[in-house]
Write a structure and sequence with these properties.
With 404 residues, the chain is of the alpha/beta class. The chain is built from twelve helices and 20 strands. The structure holds adenosine-5'-diphosphate, aspartic acid and magnesium ion (MG).
Length: 404
């Protein structure tokens, strides 16, 4: 008998018909003699709809109340699934994050998991039930409901798999695996049989929405083998996410990702003197703003500009901090550009393969796509391009590295 964790995303449980289909997958796994814990997301676009309802009432809704609101989406999903399974004669129980003892810190909207007691899950498994856990949520030390960040049900699934010592963690979604690029944007994308934790973490962090980046981080830390597969074609093998893969040296890169949730901020006319960059980035770090790509102009005369990107969600906070400290920083003005996107290539072998960056830039040059900023690491190369060029950029880069 194996202990299996299965997670189904929002589109997989969007309506009654899809809930029935997923219930069929769950029933089959259970009836094959496995112990089963299932993590569910909110149905379809429920989370977006709840956020929109809050914004209608108060565009600056408190994060605590938003978490209280958003968590109801997952709660409805698990209750509906339990109702469906019981109707099919499968013993099941739905549980919230609080009921399974999933404790988090108090960062509402992006809470980090601190512990998971597992007692309730063990007790219910002992009764022979399928456990349905509401994803994306936990409670803080005051027993207030928190959420783990958008896409966070993947992280709930891996945390449960790690804490319960599950034999496998299957992430069912609306595509049949991890591809070399988003198959909805890049028609020629290829499905990967396997990918390493390191490369998957990088792709997810750089915008490949197929897995929540923190789920991969946790899986790597606790050696949870993940499999990404389709809830519409459950018997088609998906993609394994693991420590080492067989085909490590097959391609120069593992994949391409796009991040459109980025904002470019230009701090123009700073005094060209030592300590300015330190002053600026200390300020942003104190405000807990994650700065991504940074560029400093060489300075003309006694002034210089510093340009950087930040997550779109931090835009307002960044502008407020910069405005508040305008005099101390001594800049002339700030400019903001939201019409940008970051396109990245990821590959563990990149550092030891000469010419990878040149090939990426050649693809963009041939397509006449202008690069605004570049950043590199051992395992990725990212470029900032105009948002309306990003899909084309992904496609031409993909064609360069994975020719048809
Ligand atoms: P779920 O609701 O099941 O959590 P998501 O919408 O969060 O599903 O993630 C699945 C989506 O991720 C796919 O529909 C696909 O468009 C997108 N995606 C982005 N990059 C990739 C990639 N490299 N491989 C597969 N899917 C990707
Ligand atoms: N329902 C949440 C969201 O839409 C969590 C998830 O789906 O993973 O972000
Ligand atoms: Mg998701």
């Amino acid at each position: 008998m194996s202990l299996i964790v299965q997670k189904f995303g929002g589109s997989s449980v969007a309506d009654a018909e899809r809930i029935r289909r997923v219930a069929g997958i769950i029933a089959e796994t259970y009836q094959a003699g496995n112990e089963l814990i299932v993590i569910l997301s909110a149905q379809g676009d429920t989370t977006d709809e709840l956020i929109a309802k809050a914004a209608e009432l108060n565009p600056r809704a408190s994060k605590r109340e938003l978490d209280m609101l958003m968590s109801t989406g997952e709660q409805a999903s698990v209750a509906l699934m339990a109702i469906c399974l019981k109707g099919m004669g499968v013993p099941a129980v739905s549980l919230t994050g609080w009921q399974i003892g999933l404790k988090t810190n108090s960062e509402y909207g992006s809470a980090r998991i601190e512990s998971l007691s597992g007692d309730r899950i063990k007790k219910e498994l002992g009764q022979g039930r399928v456990i349905l856990v509401a994803g994306f949520q936990g409670v803080n030390s005051s027993n207030d409901i928190t959420t783990l960040g958008r896409g966070g049900s993947d992280t709930s699934a891996v945390a449960v798999a790690a804490a319960m010592g599950a034999d496998k963690c299957q992430i069912f979604t609306d595509v049949d695996g991890v591809y070399t690029a988003d198959p909805r944007k890049v028609p020629g994308a290829r499905k990967l049989d396997e990918i390493t934790y390191t490369e998957m973490l990088e792709l997810a962090s750089l915008g490949a929405q197929v897995l929540h980046n923190r789920s991969v981080e946790l899986a790597k830390k606790y050696h949870v083998q993940m499999e990404v597969l389709s809830s519409f074609k459950p018997n088609t093998p998906g993609t394994l996410v693991k420590e080492v893969t067989k085909n490590m040296e097959q391609f120069e890169i593992a994949g391409i990702a796009k991040d459109t949730n980025t904002t470019l901020v230009e701090v123009i006319g700073l005094k060209d003197e030592p300590g300015k960059a330190f002053q600026l980035f200390r300020l942003l770090s104190n405000a807990k703003i994650n700065v991504d790509i940074i560029l400093q102009s060489s300075g003309c005369g006694v002034r210089k500009d510093i340009v950087f990107t930040i997550p779109r969600a931090d835009q307002e906070k960044t502008l407020v901090s910069l405005e508040e400290h305008k005099d101390a920083l001594g800049y002339e003005r700030i400019a903001v550009d939201q019409d940008v996107a970051k396109v990245s290539i990821v590959g563990a072998g990149m550092a030891s393969t000469p010419g990878v960056a040149a090939r990426m830039f050649e693809a963009l040059a041939d397509a006449k796509i202008n690069i605004n900023m570049i950043s590199t690491s051992e395992i990725n190369i990212s470029v900032l391009v105009a948002a309306d060029q990003a899909d084309r950029a992904m496609n031409v880069i993909h064609e360069k590295f994975f020719p048809q």
